[in-house]
């Protein structure tokens, strides 16, 4: 595995311009496993200029959609062929169990390159019959240089999600992975070259958000910004984008509700909630952590959820059989711990779980918490389920909508009437009924309120990463 992680600019490994490096820490062993380039303004400018040259002068935007799609399929093949090393990168950087990365994150990342390549190659546009005198149609021109800023919770999978669509539509990209998960993006950039994607099309700058990330979003050479991360940083990114009048999509935090109706299949509900809240040690923006349970079934549901919480196998992300790793960093552990420490003051009782050694945090079930308190309102981003009882559908909807966020909701019920009545009233970008985390790359992904601005996926990505041009021919 790499011991120094450089930038990747114009197809080459590039050291930090000013020679400064950051430590990459394994969250399980808490040892420094590598150093990474601490990107400066000069590094960011070099990457943006390389992307600009590749866009203005290189072949990529001029290839047909089918040629680009073929290249993205080759990249997908290489991602799958290198699944072991990529999964090890995620495990070492942020503690994702290597088995989960190997079986879920890496193949999903590969699928994204295939899907968006095909989607662009198969897309059609509208024509506008305008009498005998003119032909008119819309063409989707690539927007230019795309800045993609990615988080650390599923580094490769969310990285692929941010870059596959802009690449498919003929843009060039400068990617800034999170400072705590630099490795998989660096490896991916090398695989892109191997796949025959021209130099300068996919550049990766490493470094801190406040330095490299800020410089990238401030850059006047960028035409689009796509960001996934926290709401606080999203606001800063939006301000930088406003300065240059650059379109931006923000996929920010979430505080999703899982509503368990009185007619729900309780076994299914406990299973879905356990996965929705504890998977990836709770570091998932889509997690349905506000568990709203009808009072009639609350006790039974709670005891089944507690049983499931204890069934996860926490351990070394590299070990066979580990289903949950540690939290991704000591900082993340401190943050989750600070919410955990407030549970009692906010009226709640911890039924199971809590902090363990090092960065370990065991699946935690909390009951009786004040729905207006910080633990029930702010994104904990750790494996903490808060159970809140309710008595009627209206109250459930009110509670579900009573947060600043609006990313996802889960509804578990056997009643079609209830589904039809409640779903339209849920203020969230995605609603899963009797399921969780079903993704379809054609569907819009994004949130309302503090969960962000804009949608990506299928044609939604096309609208964002292209400049639609209306053409009238006499
Ligand atoms: O996120 P940041 P942090 C939430 C989650 C978590 C909290 C803090 O609640 O506990 O955010 O995580 C880059 N200009 N989510 O502090 O800072 C940064 O380098 C440009 C939810 O790690 O938002 C990284 O690449 N970029 C979320 C990326 O932004 C900047 C995933 C995300 O980091 C920047 C992550 C700046 N000024 C955290 N500052 C989700 N939606 O899944 C930082 N960055």
Tally of DSSP helical segments:
15
Number of domains: 2
Measured between the Cα atoms of the first and last residue, the distance is 60 Å
The class by helix and strand makeup works out as alpha/beta
Would you give an account of this structure?
Helix 2 (65-81) runs antiparallel to helix 4 (98-122), helix 3 crosses helix 4 (98-122) and helix 3 (83-94) runs antiparallel to helix 6. The model has no long low-confidence stretch (mean pLDDT 97). Helix 8 links the parallel strand 10 (224-228) and strand 11 (248-251). The protein is built from 15 helices and 22 strands. The chain is an alpha/beta fold. It has 2 domains: 4-252 and 451-473, 3-Layer(aba) Sandwich (Aldehyde Dehydrogenase, Chain A, domain 1), CATH 3.40.605.10; 257-439, Aldehyde Dehydrogenase, Chain A, domain 2, CATH 3.40.309.10. Bound molecules: ligand TXE. Ligand TXE binds next to helix 7 and helix 8.
